[in-house]
Amino acid sequence: MKQKLILEPENLKHYKEHLKNEEKSSATIEKYMRDIQHLHEYLADWETLTKDAVIAYKTYLIQNYASSSVNSMLTAVNGYLGFIGLYDCRVKLLKRQRKIFCSEEQELTKSEYMRLLKVSNRKETRRINLIMQTICATGIRIGELKYFTLQGVKRGKIEVYNKGKSRTVLIPRQLCKKLEQYAKEREIHGGSIFITRNHKPIDRSNVWMEMKKLCKKAGVAAGKVFPHNLRHLFARTYYKMEKDIMKLADLLGHNSIETTRIYILSTGEEHERQIACLGLLT
Question: Which residues of 157-174 are buried (b: 16+ CB within 10 A; e: fewer)?
Fold first, then answer.
């Protein structure tokens, strides 16, 4: 069935409001809108929106993006098509075999993390040093830093609200002492501890840029240094010690164990060592 191209600003505006009402995070909403705009640009030469057009777009994505990115972009497109009533134009996601190990080029190791802390342990980089420790020691999302208030730190726990639910995050005593001392030095008497010069909670772009500045001096590949990798390091370290994926999922705020599985994948090199230890070769 042929349909007019319905990617007009008014429809996109309504869909954005719909995502807000669904309590999607601001980062998720921005990504969805970028993905839909990407579809719009691809369909510039199409007069009508048909299932064939969306299938052609899917083929284009497969030829130019990794399968995980393809599925992520198609999820946004399918959501929008469903919202405007074009259910018949939605397409199937790619079927992917579950990964059993992660890329060594992308995994931030504990020793690399320690090097980042070492080079940032100066007065001028004290904030990013403590931010990295806070994320890595608690497993929080970068967007949850704003909940680290002085009041919560003094209690030793904070309440985090994300993805339509809340959870309690316990703060290690050693980290509490560090954060209280930092707040005292910066004359922060209440509210969020990690703030900008304008006294607003620091955002992910600030953290990302400050972390990237540490790469060269720490001798760590820039492709490994971003806030979410600290969350992955927390997950892998916790799981190696406790072997409790259910509790880890609760700590990370995951709805699905399958999501948690991704966080605790070992590297290909470690997987090779494990296979070699089976003793099945002469």
Answer: ebebeeeeeebebebeee
